[in-house]
Amino acid sequence: MYAFSRLILWAFALLLAVPTGFAVLVLALFVDPAAQVWMTNGALAGLDMALSDLSAGLPPEGLALLIAGLAKALFVLLFMPPALIGLGGEIFGRRGLLWYGAGCGLLTAALPWLTRGAIRSSGGRDAALLAGEVRLTLILFVVGASAGLVYWLVAGRKAGLIRDAGLPDGA
Predict the structure, then answer these.
(1) Which of 71, 105, 78 is nearest to 22 (CA)?
(2) Measuring CA to CA, how many Å separate 142 from each of 57, 89, 136, 147?
(3) How many CB atoms within 10 Å of residue 141?
(4) Arithmetic mean of pLDDT over the chain
(5) Domain spans of the chain?
(6) pLDDT digits (tens, 9 = 90+) for 7-19
(7) Contact at 8 Å (CB) between 81 and 108?
(8) Radius of gyration over alpha carbons of the chain, in Å?
(9) Which of 53, 70, 119, 131 has the most beta carbons within 10 angstroms of its beta carbon?
(10) pLDDT score for 70
């Protein structure tokens, strides 16, 4: 019964952590000037793709694929890190703020680097592109850390699959 209640609490904590991460991501993307340029270029490219399909008499399936890809990326960036860190915290009995905040932030920030493969050499890259990637990595760290902290507030402080019998709350 204890494991079932922890599972319910894990799901509820994720239900609160994911929208928190999304809100921080939206706020950071609207505040950061480099991210604004990136979003504007992406929106214009998507609009151009949809309008070219419509003008050719085709259904805008390119736009549907773009939206599906965006949904998949948001799922991976916003749901997976707090779910994995929370599951690890439950299995290993980790209750520290650093485990949830920094762990979730580092995992979220590392995901784009991990999904595209090995870190490429900067030969031929200009410094502005590299600076933009560093800024985006920092934004993703803050997004993951905020989601991890919310998860810690809801479920992480008393994490663990085995109940501590007879120990006070602070131990």
Answers:
(1) 78
(2) 43, 20, 10, 9
(3) 18
(4) 79
(5) 2-32+76-158
(6) 888 889 889 999 9
(7) yes
(8) 20
(9) 53
(10) 82
Tokens 């599972």 locate to 7
Residue 105, number of CB atoms within 10 A of its CB: 23
Inform me whether the pLDDT recorded for 79 exceeds 90: yes
Amino acid at 120: R
Beta carbons of 155 and 86 less than 8 angstroms apart = yes
Query: Given the structure tokens 């995992």, which residue do they identify?
Result: 107
Residues 6+ apart with CB under 8 A from 77: 21, 25, 108, 111, 140, 143
- Total residue count of the chain as it appears in this document: 171
CA nearest to 91, candidates 1, 3, 171: 3
Token pair of 32, please?
């950061």
- Residue type (1 letter), 57: G
What is the tens place of the pLDDT at every residue in 98-149?
888 999 999 999 988 787 765 555 555 566 667 777 888 888 999 999 999 9
